[in-house]
Amino acid sequence: MASAKPKKKNPRLASGRKRVRQDVKLNAANTSLRSKYRTAVKNVEKAVLAGDKTKATEAFAKAQSIVDTVADKGIFHKNKAARDKSRLSAKVKALALAPEKAVAA
């Protein structure tokens, strides 16, 4: 027999039951925001790797607001958010300063 997770006990007090209900909603919201954060960062990095300056700057602008939102809600620490924004910004700036590549048709 495969060992299953031990079943969690239900709280007895009404306040405890309410806290469990709230935690489920908060967990879902935090998970969604964390996923949105990761997707935004990946989109910027993909655009930088592809060498698309306009797409990278647009994706970075969107990612900045998402990173700030996640930091404000306390899902990630503000310093982590600042560090990630700084690193993304450096990648986008390096792409903007890079010389144009000649594309053969």
Describe it.
- With 105 residues, the protein is an all-alpha fold.
- The protein is 73% helix and 0% strand.
What keyword list fits this structure?
mainly alpha; 105 residues; 3 helices
Fraction of helical residues? over 70%
Largest sheet: none
Mean of all residue-level pLDDT scores? 90
Q: Helix and strand string, N-terminal first? A: HHH
| Residue windows where pLDDT falls under 50 for at least 5 positions | none
Content of β-strand? under 5%
Strand runs, count = 0
Number of helices: 3
Shape, per Cα inertia axes? elongated
Question: How would you classify the helix and strand content by structural class?
Answer: mainly alpha
In angstroms, what separates the terminal alpha carbons? 62 Å
